[in-house]
Structures are given as C-alpha cells and as structure tokens.
Amino acid sequence: MLRIITQRTEARTELRRICDRTHDDQVFHKEATVREVLQAVKRQGDRALLHYTAEFDQQELKPEELRVSGSELDAAYQQVSKELLDAIRLAHKQIEAFHRQRVPKSWVQFGEDDVVLGKRYTPVDRAGLYVPGGRGAYPSTVLMNAVPAMVAQVPRIAIVTPPGPEKTVNPAVLVAAQEAGVQEIYRVGGAQAIAALAFGTETIPKVDVITGPGNIYVTLAKKLVYGTVGIDSLAGPSEVLVIADETANPVFIAADLLAQAEHDPMAAAILITTDSSLALKVVAEVEQQLIDHPRRTLTEKAIAHYGLIIVVDSLETAAELSNEFAPEHLELEVEDPWALIDHIRHAGAIFLGSSTPEAVGDYLAGPNHTLPTSGSARYASPLGVETFMKHSSLIQYSPTALQKVSEAVDVLATAEGLSSHADSVRLRTKPKQIDSES
Amino acid sequence: MLRIITQRTEARTELRRICDRTHDDQVFHKEATVREVLQAVKRQGDRALLHYTAEFDQQELKPEELRVSGSELDAAYQQVSKELLDAIRLAHKQIEAFHRQRVPKSWVQFGEDDVVLGKRYTPVDRAGLYVPGGRGAYPSTVLMNAVPAMVAQVPRIAIVTPPGPEKTVNPAVLVAAQEAGVQEIYRVGGAQAIAALAFGTETIPKVDVITGPGNIYVTLAKKLVYGTVGIDSLAGPSEVLVIADETANPVFIAADLLAQAEHDPMAAAILITTDSSLALKVVAEVEQQLIDHPRRTLTEKAIAHYGLIIVVDSLETAAELSNEFAPEHLELEVEDPWALIDHIRHAGAIFLGSSTPEAVGDYLAGPNHTLPTSGSARYASPLGVETFMKHSSLIQYSPTALQKVSEAVDVLATAEGLSSHADSVRLRTKPKQIDSES
C-alpha cells in the first residue's frame, strides 16, 4: 500500500533513500564477476561468448549462430501482427521526426586577421546497441536507440540482445530493428555482450559507443569499459514523479504510478500533491487497479518499497522536492503545467497536463525514452543524436594574427614553465631566428 | 631520438601501442588506493581531506585553511606581473567569445492536434573544477574549465587544486579564477579532492559535475565517482599528431612536437609526412632544440618512448592513419589544409596551416584545450558549455491527440507485456470506463 507523508523532513529523507536505491555498496561484489567476464571475452573472443551464453542464458550456440541470419530477419515479419507492425511504423516515424530536429551542424566563423574558428561535427564510426531480452520483448528500446544512431548517420550499427528459449530473438525486436534500418543483430546479452562490443571478437565488431539499458551486470560492464569506448549512461531502475493539484484525476495518476512500478521491483513511483483528498483517492485507486494486475507481485513490491505520496502546501514546494530528486520522468498533472515548468530544474522528460501519460512518451510521442535515472538528471540528458556524434574544434591563424598574440602566448607559456610552447610561436613570428637555425 | 617508420603495418602497430599507452592493466592496482581514499572522505569528510593532504602533499592544514581566503585572493593580484594579467585577460576574452557561440537553447515545436514537443536546457546547480598544481601552475586550465561553466550560468562553481609548498596556491591560478568569476577555491588535490566534490564534506560542497585534468589517481577517482556525479572525460597524457607535406617547415614542426613532449614523459608526439627529407630534417631539428631545453630529461623520455615519424605515400593515407589514432591535437601543416579536412573523421582539435601552432589553441585562440585523449576522439568531444548543461524533453498531448495514438500505444504496451502502460492511455481515452471506476 502507498504511504502518505506530510512532514517535510521525512519526505526529504524518503526521497533521498529512494533516489539512492541503486548506489548500494552491494553492487561492488558483482564487479568481480563482471571483470572476469570482460577479461575472458577480451582474451578468448567468441569462445567466451558461447561459454557465458550457455551458462547465463542456457542456450548452446555455435559461433555461426551468434549473428541473426537473413532468413530469421525475413521470417520475423510473418510473426508479428499487422497491428503491431503498424504501431512500430508509427512510432518509428514520430521518433525519427523528433530526432531530426536541431541535429548539430558544423560551423565556422571568420574573425579579424583571417582567423577561422569553428566546430566540425561527425558521427562515430560504429555503434553498439544493447536491447534487453529474456522474459520481455522491447521493440521500443530498439527504436529509441537505433533511430538517433541512424539520424546521426553512423556508418555501422550493431544490436546485441540475449537469446530467449530455443535461441530465439523476439520477432518484434527483429522487425523494429529492420524498420529502423539495422540488419546486424547478435544474440548475446549480459556483460559478455558489452565486452564483445568494447573489445571486438571474431564475429562481433569493436564499436566506438555502446548505448541501451540493461540489468546491473550490463550497467557495471558499461561503467568498466567506459574510457575504452563511449557509453550513453549508467541506467538504473525506472522512476516517475507526478506533481498533481486538486484538478488531477486520481484514476489517471494511479495508472501512471503503476505503469512505472510494473517495470521492475526496484522501480519508483512518487506522487507529490497539494491535495490531501487526492492523495487518499490515489491510494485507493492503486489498490483497485492492482487487483487484476498481470504482474501484481512484482508491481506491489515496487509500490511497497519505492512508492510514496507526499502532501505539500504549494506547487512550488512540490517543484523544490522534485528538483532534489531529479526524476527520470516528471508528470505535471496540474491546471497550468506551463506556469509550473519554470520552477523545474532537473528532470529527464517532463509530461505536461492530464492527457500526457508517460506511456505516450515511452512509445511514440517522439522524444527519447532512454532518460537519466537515479538523480542523474541533475547533470545528464536523454539519449539523442548527440550521443552518436562528436565534434572537433577548428582553428586557423594567419601570420598577422599569430604575431598579434605571440607576446601573450609567450607570457602564459613561460608562467606555466612550458618553453617549447613559447618557442613554437616565437620561431614562427621572428623569422630571423628561424633563418639562423634552419 | 625520433624514429622514422616507412612500413605501413609497422606504423599501425606502433600507433596502436602509443594510443593504448594508458590502457595499461597496471592502473587497476592503483584503484585499491583510490577506493580507500574515496571511502575515507565519504565517511570522515574534512578530517580525511586533511589527513591525505598531509600524507600526499606534505602540507598540514587546519579545516579553516581548506578554503583560500579573501585576502589571499586579493593578494594574488599583487603577485602576478602586469604582462601576465594582460595575457590572462586576453585569453579570457577570447575563450569566452568562442564559448558564447551556439550555446544550446530551449525550444518547443507545435504539432497537429495541439501536440507540443521540445527540449528545455538548464545548467547544473553546482560544478567542481579540478586544477592540477604541484610543480606547475596552470592558469590556462582554470580559464578553460571555468569559462564554459560561467557561460552555462552554473550558479555555484568551486575550484580544487593541491597546495604547493607553505600551503600556497599559485597566484596566477587565483587571478585566472577571479577573472573568470570564481571565488570559491579549495586547496586540496588528488583523489581526495574528487571525493570531496562527489560526496561533499563539512567545508566543500557536493557538486553535480566534476571537470578538469589530473594525474592517474585523479582520473581513476573520476571514473569511480561517475554515476554519482557527472564528469567531463577520463583524461590521459597529452598527444599531438602532425600531418605535413613538403611545404612544411621542419623548425616549426620540431617545436610543436616538443611542445607536446615537454608536458609529460607519457606525452606522444607523432609526425606523418609525405616527404622523407622533411622527416630527416625534423629528426635533426628536434635534437637541436632539445640541447638547451629546460625540461630536457622528461622531454627526451617522451620523444624516445612515444615519439614517431611515419613516412607515407599520400596525404589520404596520412589522414587514414590519423583517423585510426584519433589524436587529441591534429595539426595539418600542408599546403591546402581545408582540402584535407574532409578526410579527417576523428580529432579533438584541428589546427590548420603553418601559422597555427597548437600552443595558440592551448592558451587563447578560444576553443577549449580540454580535449579527448587516448583515442577517445573516436566518440568524445572537447569540454564545452554543454558539459555544464543538460536538457529535459517536453511532451504535451491533447485529448484528441491521445485518442489518435491510443490504439498504437495499446498494441506496443501489450507486446511488451506492460498492462498498466496500456491502461494509462485506455483509461484516459475511454471516458465511460473512468466514470465507472471513479
């Protein structure tokens, strides 16, 4: 059952506890296993992948089965319904349209004395996308990772996903990948898949950036290989924070809280409201909607441990508490959400008004659903086209421009004790000295 | 002495060895020490900071001495020359001007059926900047970190830097900080400083993002606290790669290679040229310029271990090898650098033409000098205003818009086995059901 808190200090303590739920020191114990997997894959390549796939996924693969074949890709289209295919296509269209907005563009700027400065944006050469598997099938994860990589024009994109029973990969995943334009899919998951993408094996190419959510082993592996490759973020369990006033509908809010809780027993679902009677109605409605819930046990566990209702005196206080929590998903179920938004400083995605359930953003509104979790919205952004691009600074000086700054460079280089830095300018700007030396 | 290689396979092997010089497994042994420091600071706060500062920096501080006082900040201006102050101000002006270009701006977009989508950019609340100290003084590092944080409008910015002899902080560092607008400076360095910024102590505030270069302990600490806070990158030793044709001046190139090598015995200095006679001249000129070099021993060590000249048959081949190395700094000392740039895919900063030594970018051209090292330019960008900002996605649907996508969301949520996701839309779009339940 959802608890209601009205006392501010207690609310802060509880929010802190929920936010820190994954920073548990216990995860360090799993690191030894993950390090071992990484080392094995680095040294033994495919052989280690097959070994761990047998051990962790109970699937005995041959090396040539690692990559999903062309005929499996074709067959997947026969295995999904027309409705699902249409839905995937609609989602793809809308996600692509959003991600095509404001893609970073190279620019140069011409200054005095023929100085040219600028930034040159380029995609990474290769990207590896992790798509969780096992019990679930996540075509939406495929789209949310593959579309920004495609929009960034990454030349080579590979997907890794753990095999299910009988070595299968869910057909909806295969269809979503193909709709997004990705044909290179490997049935391997866990830390071993991250290792394969980071180091390369005989079958799987080494990539430059790895993105996508996964369990704690996948996340630890991503943290360990960060620096060898780029990563999107360290994803924790999902969370929603709803800010609601007296105009909000308790039925909608209950459904939204449960939509978060049903992901994972570690998922967090928080309501902050100015209306104590709404709080009570939401508690009752959550109980009601849980009765026939297909994932009742798991969902109840999340609600019990990481569900919370806080009653506050004003929407400003609600925004302040929300900023401290820095939620992955923030719903503003209030009369005037645009007035409240100026008080919001940290959130992965903000859903405005009562007709915008998080689920619409999860699947097809267009913005990415891979968002910063566990308070990292304080400093991190949603996955995007930028995740698959980087830029180089451009600098061109003319002899005249260099002459003008040579004294200042000399002074600074000397202050930092770097004599060749000074020389590299001095030799260029005092031609006589060059003649005598060359 | 600089070696010359002409054989392609050998060149690739050597470039790989140089690129991987910091991915050495030995660093893992230092991790235990760093973990211990992090834990101690997390638990004991200031007390641990004072302990490690005494141990590693040989300075016995009292807690109230951690923060640099107002009178020290004032006094610093009396301790730097007029020329140095002017140079710092010129650098500040130009760095700021460049970083003010194309700062990310919030936007919204209005679609059909009153759908609103957008991105809202906000700065982080607090940033912590690491400035190396010890033997050297790096006012340029202060500017290159503080200016983008200021342009991003970060409300609170703190600098940490290890104390030198007699607890001093270099006055040029203190002046550069104040010129950039930062008054909050702590004399603490190493992993303990990173821990203080990540977890907070009695004196030092917990921040959201930590940036700035440091030694291997600082870098390991940043990697370990990544996820608790954001970081800019994992900086390795510096490197330059020069591509030169027969029009290049060997004196300039030698100075530029040495300007890199003088940083650190692990620094890398590579020339790829189409002109074998230029290669020989550069070898001789490097020897010549080393004779009276104030940091001769250190610089010779870097040249011997990580210096290299590769002679190739075409500039395209040079670009290809450079892309594989993905250098932090790339100089194009060729007749037509803009023609070559289309072949360059990965580099932190690109310096075009013979009047653009790297040093001009290191100090005052404007673009940031904190750049991706050790091959990470394959996926990472220079430090910038974006490092201190993040965005939230914005989504607003209308009842009509939600109605139109409700079927698709339902199909996708059902395919992923998430019933409350489906409910959260269904309950909003089928009013009768709501009435019966509320």
Automatic annotation (TrEMBL), chains A, B:
Residues reported to bind NAD(+): Y130, Q192, N215
Reactions catalysed: L-histidinol + 2 NAD(+) + H2O = L-histidine + 2 NADH + 3 H(+)
Enzyme class, broadest EC rank: oxidoreductase
Annotated Zn(2+) binding sites: Q260, H263, D362, H421
Keyword entries, A-Z: Amino-acid biosynthesis, Histidine biosynthesis, Metal-binding, NAD, Oxidoreductase, Zinc
Keyword Amino-acid biosynthesis tagged: yes
CDD domains attached to this UniProt entry: Histidinol_dh
Primary role: Catalyzes the sequential NAD-dependent oxidations of L-histidinol to L-histidinaldehyde and then to L-histidine.
Protein name listed in UniProt: Histidinol dehydrogenase
Designated gene of the protein: hisD
